[in-house]
Here is the input.
Amino acid sequence: MQFSEDFIWTTGRKMANKIQTPEGLFDIDGLLTDEELEIRGVIRKFVEKRIKPFVADWFESGELPAKELAIELGELGVLGMHLEGYGCAGAGAVAYGLACMELEAGDSGIRSLVSVQGSLAMKAIHAFGSEEQKQHWLPRMATGEVLGCFGLTEPDFGSNPAGMRTRAKRDGDEWVLDGTKMWITNGNIADVAVVWARTDEGIRGFVVPTETPGFSANLVHRKLSLRASVTSELVLDGVRLPAEAVLPGVSSLRGPLTCLNEARFGILFGALGAARDSLEAAIKYGLERVQFDNPIAAYQLTQKKYADMTVEFGKGLLLALQIGRLKEKGTLRPEQVSLGKFNSVRQALAITRECRSILGANGITLEYPVMRHMANLESVYTYEGTHEMHTLVIGEALTGIPAYRI
Ligand code: TGC
Ligand code: FAD
Here is the structure.
């Protein structure tokens, strides 16, 4: 949204013609390279054209044309864009973060689709797969022709994946998988599932084509959040896989947690996209909505809300950029990713709630993006490590004491 034209109040008074956007106020663009600005611009345009006009309907119906979108996102080059080789663009960390931010300005569900594909399923194969697995899966996942999902969480083990019950047993040259995974994004539409299971050698990852006998997926219904996203239960009932289905590069929780670092990095930028979109909608609404003969944006209480939210948004984005530059230098530590996810999602949720108040009754509808973002961010607060888990990661970094277990 551009706030550049003169704007006449209904009372006849004229407003200043130099209205700045929240990002503009922080001169964020000055911190970005030409390439990053270009990538951001291309994705912003895609989201304006291909996501924003339709996403309220997808959210309301709980149906996402995910397969179609995956091909378009593949053409855009965002699926696994931060990975090197195998048809991936090898973009920098900040460029990837900005892409997530633009996608989540559309809807967290779209960013989720991209996160799960690129940062979880593709990342697992890229980081821990054999050369054959990489050649076989990654190029088609980068184009969106093959969709992936990532099964770590179980019905009884969410925050504590170390307790997982899903089990893989060797049977001659084969593996047999049994167990249940829960809350799996893209589960029903995936062609391939990366499934983490307990083995005699530790926790290992398996690349499971979803047409394998014994594999099934059940949609999670009646969600009030992430409605423009497919969420599923995965059932593995004697799924028999060849020896080469196991990811050879890791046999501990370090495998899935390494992938989670990537996806959490995307979220710490992404959540700020939902916040920015809400903030822009609330400023636009405040300038147009007249009560007591003036636009509500003219009242000091409303301006305080705008100021408080913009400052938190900008601080969050500066922190995200610092984390992105550390990632590009290769020095980023997991606790710094937790710091970013902790801050961005908490602030984004607070911002969307405050923006909703500015929209009054209109704010509770899907005519505006704000409450949809707010509802989505409740999931974002919980997935990829709950807010409390990231609090404890930060606490451990500061005290040396892990407080996850009593
Ligand atoms: P701990 O004993 O500390 O560590 C086990 C092994 O993992 C290594 N490690 C890490 N490696 C990479 N990155 C990290 N962030 C790591 N944290 C730990 C560690 O060095 C060790 O390696 P090794 O080689 O010695 O075995 O593990 P713990 O069981 O005490 O874990 C603690 C805790 C709470 C931090 C961890 O369990 C955790 O992060 N829990 C949250 C679970 C979670 O985030 N689940 C997300 C599921 S996926 C999802 O939500 C997708 S949503 C997708 C979407 O739609 O966008
Ligand atoms: P629990 O772990 O049961 O936590 C419940 C509450 O207890 C939380 O507030 C938590 O912070 C708190 N708590 C737990 N332990 C402690 C402690 N030690 N100290 C203090 N508080 C604690 N998972 C996947 O593997 N793949 C996916 O693709 C995926 N997609 C998802 C999509 C959606 C829309 C959602 C909602 C979830 C998705 N998840 C996915 C699952 C997600 O990662 C888990 O929901 C999350 O890790 C939390 O697990 P839980 O829901 O079982 O909550």
User: Anything to note?
Assistant: Confidence is low (pLDDT under 50) at residues 1-12. Residues 7-143 form a domain with the Butyryl-Coa Dehydrogenase, subunit A; domain 1 fold (CATH 1.10.540.10). Residues 116, 150-153, 158-159, 183-185, 226, 231, 379, 382-383, 386, 388-389, 404 surround flavin-adenine dinucleotide (ligand 2) (CB under 6 Å).
